[in-house]
Amino acid sequence: MRRYAVEFIGTFFLVFTVGCAVLGRSPLAPLAIGAVLMVMVYAGGHISGGHYNPAVTLGVWIRGRIETVEAAGYWVAQLAAAVVAAFVADYVVNPRVVVQLAPSGRNLVAALIVEVLFTFALVYVVLNVATSKDHPDNSFYGLAIGFTVAAGAFAVGTISGAAFNPAVALGASIMELFAWSKIWLWLVADLAGGAAAGAAFLALNTDDRAAPAPAGHAPARN
Q1: In 3D, which of 134, 181, 185 has the Cα closest to residue 159?
Q2: Is 204 helix (H, G, I), strand (E, B) or coil?
Q3: Are 131 and 63 in contact (CB under 8 A)?
Q4: DSSP 91-137
Q5: Full residue range of the structural domain in which residue 92 is found
Q6: Beta bridge partners of 101
Q7: What is the pLDDT of residue 146?
Q8: How far is residue 104 CA from its own chain's centroid?
Q9: Which residues does residue 178 pair with via DSSP β-bridges, in sequence order?
Q10: Angstrom distance (rounded) from CA 216 to CA 222
Q11: 179 pairs with which residues across the strands?
């Protein structure tokens, strides 16, 4: 339960920061989001692995560092945290400015592409800096992960909303930032990107196919 609690806390603060920064129209929203992810990864990485993202958990599962039942528990904790964080952010930001994203046509295809690409980048970075045997006990993993999200948010935030995370997409839909009719876009694209990153890691690291971490050990950190 300690791991699930950490995943809940980290995901809560990630989605809460997304909500407050975007609803409040902060010009530094991408930096705030990347920073909060970084510090929460450092805070909880030694306990749960600091996923805070169902796409990351999927990639870690494909990579072989978390068992199926535990991965499902992570998903429940992450999505529950996203729901709670969305309602809290929606309440505290008042007045709030909502510009709902509902891409269609060419914009829909563009959003799918960038969500797949940057979710791939995020999960690929997580797997390489936080689970690879070549980087045991490094001190830069949180910074690398947080800056991947910040870079993606600056680069493609106006195209797709820069979720890169199904839990963030759920929270954004509750806050009316994403149209409910289009939520499938983020769910499909982000999970596809996470799965592709897990497969890419295995293909490029054939000698690093770890078994699932035993009970009592964080599944995504060496």
Answers
A1: 185
A2: helix
A3: yes
A4: HHS-S-----B---THHHHHHHHHHHHHHHHHHHHHHHHHS-TTSTT
A5: 2-204
A6: 178
A7: 97
A8: 24
A9: 101
A10: 13
A11: none
Residue 207, pLDDT score = 84
Q: Is 217 among the domain residues?
A: no
Q: What is the pLDDT of residues 169-216, one digit of tens each?
A: 999 999 999 999 999 999 999 999 999 999 999 999 988 875 444 333
Which CATH number covers residue 165?
A: 1.20.1080.10
Average confidence (pLDDT) over 26-55: 97
- For residue 53, give the nearest of 11, 16, 115 by alpha carbon: 11
* Helices and strands, counts by H and E, the chain: 8, 0
- Residue 65 tokens read as 């560092």
Q: Total structural domains in the chain? A: 1
Whether residue 215 lies inside any domain: the answer is: no
CA distance 19 to 38: 17
pTM: 0.93
Residue 2 has pLDDT above 70, yes or no: yes
List all residues 6 or more positions away from 195 whose beta carbon is below 8 Å from its beta carbon.
58, 59, 62
Query: Which tens digit of pLDDT belongs to each residue from 49-105?
Result: 999 999 999 999 999 999 999 999 999 999 999 999 999 999 999 888 888 999 999
Residues counted in the chain: 222
Are 19 and 175 contacting, i.e. CB atoms less than 8 angstroms apart? yes
